[in-house]
Amino acid sequence: LAEESPDSAYHSHGSSLEEEAAERMDDEEQERLLNYWQSVGRGHQVDVPRDMAEPIQQLTRNNNPQERQSIPFTLIQRKEKLGDLLYEKRQYGKAKWACITMKEKQYEQSICLGFMKLMRYICEQNSSGLYLGITVPIVTIVHTNEAQSAMTQAVTVAYYLPEVLQDEPPHPFDSDIIIEEWPATIVYSRSFRGITNEDSIMREINLLAAILESPELCLRDTFIIAGYTNPAAANRHNEIWFLQRP
Question: What residue spans carry the region label Disordered (predicted)?
């Protein structure tokens, strides 16, 4: 057998040491991110399990604004007052979404737990075995009573499938996640920042209802909160959407 030269021995040992160091840093980053999400989760009375470490890390690494795919829409109208944007009227096309309905005690718990399940689906826990990519916004569908004074408990969290997967979406391993095709829809959208909970959502619903010239054209008991920032972020960028009646 040919003897290993000192040079090649150094390179093989050197590269394995580098790999070990990289793995150790990888583990430390994963642990740091998991701890951060766990502390945020505790604030929302949600337990973030250890098996979320890898999906959280994958999502964090791939969460550059340039890598996110925005859900396409056609802008129909912008309503402004004294230079401030009051709302936008948009048309979204027919599309497939991965959806999960949660019924936790609090809205915040439902969106955190629903989002974690969708993260697992996005991060390889699907029939393609691939990372599917982030699309924004992630949306939640909420329902209110007819008087628009209180929210019901069921909340649907939904992820728009990237364009390349629209024809053949990968199947989720989690049977709670359903692939649905939503029809083309006209929405009235208003932006707001900060946390989303029952109080802030009801406030935004009442605010947009007061601004719209013809709120009777929209569904009175079904609304969408569009989130452009992950639920762990403090100063989230959100929108409230009213859905025009079909």
Answer: 1-28
The domain spans of the chain are 14-61, 69-244
Nearest to 246 by CA among 190, 189, 183: 183
What is the rounded CA–CA span in Å between residue 148 and residue 146?
5
Q: Tell me the per-residue pLDDT of 84-107, one tens digit each, with 9 for 90 and over.
A: 999 999 999 999 999 999 998 888
Quickly name the fold that domain 69-244 has: Multidrug-efflux Transporter 1 Regulator Bmrr; Chain A (3.20.80)
**Residue range 110-143, pLDDT digits in tens:** 888 898 899 889 988 899 999 998 899 999 999 9
Helix (H) or strand (E) holding 240: strand 237-244
Decide if 219 contacts 246 (C-beta within 8 A).
Answer: no
Which residues in 82-217 belong to E strands, given as ranges?
A: 84-92, 95-102, 135-136, 138-143, 155-160, 178-182, 185-193
pTM for this prediction: 0.78
Measure the CA dihedral 135/161/51/153, to 10°. 90
